[in-house]
Amino acid sequence: MSIAENVAHIREEMALAPRAAGRNPEEIQLCAATKMNDADAVRQAIAAGVDCCGENRVQELTAKLREDAYRGAPVHFIGHLQTNKVRQVVGKVDLIQSVDSEHLLRAIDLEAGKQHIYQNILFEVNIGQEASKSGFQSRDILPLLEKIGEFPNICVKGLMAIPPISQNVGDNVKFFQKMSELCVDIRRKKYDNVTVDCLSMGMSGDFADAILWGSTMIRVGTAIFGARTY
Fold it and tell me: What is the domain extent for residue 190?
């Protein structure tokens, strides 16, 4: 199937899950995870109607920006970001989804201040408490938000999570549920520069379950572009 056909098929599935949960399908955005796909594939995905593109690697982001690959859609950074590469990302993307430490948060805030901009971010939550993955522990999110005023050049738009690799359909529901509950806890309070409008969770194999549990953005790569060749 072509990229356009894949996107159309995903859109059909995206319309079913929110209706089952009593939600408006228009509340959910489709982020094309463009890792290891060239500029032409990215352009095809945008033409097919994805809402945004998500890049995992700074080198690929920089190259595709030079090629104007993202024209017509916002671009997000969704991979692990090292502090020494913050300057190459801040101000270049609409949203950094993968802020996984206070050290990185401070680096982003500092660079945004230098550029006299506000950088939109999501906090990445290590919801499966996996030693091999980065991200905040869920218990650390509320205390961090209590001092978010220390970062005047940051706007926290919500949360992102990458649950453990699932072996069976439904395995990740418990993690999606925990993320949804964390969002509810945050919305009960009022923090400066925090909206929590975005809950980014769900990928090619589990996005329907993620949508049922409140995801507002799914990040899909394989189901759009096909399996990656490493």
Answer: 3-225
